[in-house]
Amino acid sequence: MRILINFSPIKKGGGQNVALNFIKSLFEDKNIQNKDDYIFLTVKNSPIHLLLEKYKPTQVIFSPSNPMKRIIYETFYLNSFSLYPTSFDYSVKYF
Questions:
Q1: Where are the beta strands (DSSP E) in the chain?
Q2: Hey, what CATH topology would domain 2-93 get?
Q3: So where are the chain's domains?
Q4: What does the pLDDT profile of the chain (95 residues) look like in tens digits?
Q5: Within a 10 A sphere around the Cβ of 7, how many other Cβ atoms?
Q6: Closest by CA position to 19, among listed 32, 2, 6
Q7: Dmax over Cα atoms in the chain, in whole Å?
């Protein structure tokens, strides 16, 4: 199963801590069987991106950090041609 996890709205604070702990659990917890293929959407050079680099997931997609540009990017780019060859079954968005 292909799952898109969208961390792009997260800037700092509690949401970021939850996201970082989620990523650590996903890759480090031996009780979780990672049979799924995860696609991560995040802002380049963010703490989330830097942590993902440590675990080297299959696919990381970068979105703009500006909220207006991000909305346009998610609406037009992600829903059109870019993810068509790598479509996903589920989408999860962190706030």
A1: 2-6, 37-43, 59-63, 90-93
A2: Rossmann fold (3.40.50)
A3: 2-93
A4: 788 888 988 888 888 999 999 999 988 887 776 677 888 989 999 999 999 999 887 788 888 888 888 888 877 777 654 554 556 777 777 76
A5: 27
A6: 6
A7: 39
